[in-house]
């Protein structure tokens, strides 16, 4: 047996052994129901386990079957999702639930290839469902797995590049043990999340330490290599909150932009922080409207956008006047507004 083959087999065995004693008890690990596994995977994309867990529990409780989710009103699903961000996930999730309900009679497709044809299910999620629910021997490759493999095997290929996806994909498939592939997949992801974590890997108590490249070359902080080519765009939002007694005006966002299908206030997008700060002087200067409270500037960070937001309150005594400003705006009382799905920054602002 070559040293390379030995090392790879040894690696998988050690990861599984580690998992048996160190894994966290999480509800989606106790089930092979593909619907619950899919829910957990969609929720946990871009979200930490601690933050995602209560959302998972709420979704399972509110929609115990995929038919329940497929038949749920869109606003209700988005409201339950509020705070998780990346709302396209919730939109795709609902779309896919309807397809599985209508075209597959509530039965999840049971292979990696078939799962990949569904909207919102990419390579990673298809592999996770195929592996955990149907025990198909296909390797999962998420950020945790990339990190563990890059560090342990000393791979410096950019994990965000097509070459990286190919190289790591091949290696992770080779490492997959014939038996227990579904346990190994869980194990390596958990190992990356708990033991070989991004900032502070616990090398001192790591069972792979002796043969780990990063540990032996002191390269834990350098690996994996990820070259992020996407620039963060800055945007400046002036939100005017029209108020009529205890009601506030909101509208549903329908355009192809962030926060699609969520509710926000009357929005004027500006081109600089300076224009945002001067907004009141320029926007309503020539009108009879008197501006009430003006908030400070809030910053909201999305993956590829940094948004600077300021809120301006305006009382209008005649609710008919609202249509002068925008046809989409509608007045809601406090309770109604609370129930609407909103970007988390707006939901929090209303609670202040
Ligand atoms: S020794 Fe450190 S860097 Fe290497 S696999 Fe273990 S935790 Fe990760």
Describe the structure.
There is one protein chain. By secondary structure, the chain is α+β, with helices and mostly antiparallel strands. The protein is built from 17 helices and eight strands. The chain has helices at 3-22, 34-44, 49-62, 66-70, 74-81, 87-103, 112-115, 123-134, 143-153, 162-175, 181-194, 213-217, 273-277, 279-283, 322-325, 334-339, 344-351, and strands spanning 233-244, 247-252, 263-264, 266-270, 291-294, 298-301, 305-315, 330-332. Strands 1, 2, 3, 4, 5, 6, 7 and 8 form an eight-stranded mixed β-sheet that branches. Strand 6 and strand 7 form a beta hairpin. The protein starts with a helix and ends with a helix. The relative contact order is 0.10. Mean pLDDT is 90; it is low at 1-5.
Top keywords for this entry?
352 residues, alpha+beta, Endonuclease III, domain 1, Nucleoside Triphosphate Pyrophosphohydrolase, 2 domains, 8-stranded mixed sheet, 17 helices, 8 strands, globular, disordered N terminus, binds iron/sulfur cluster
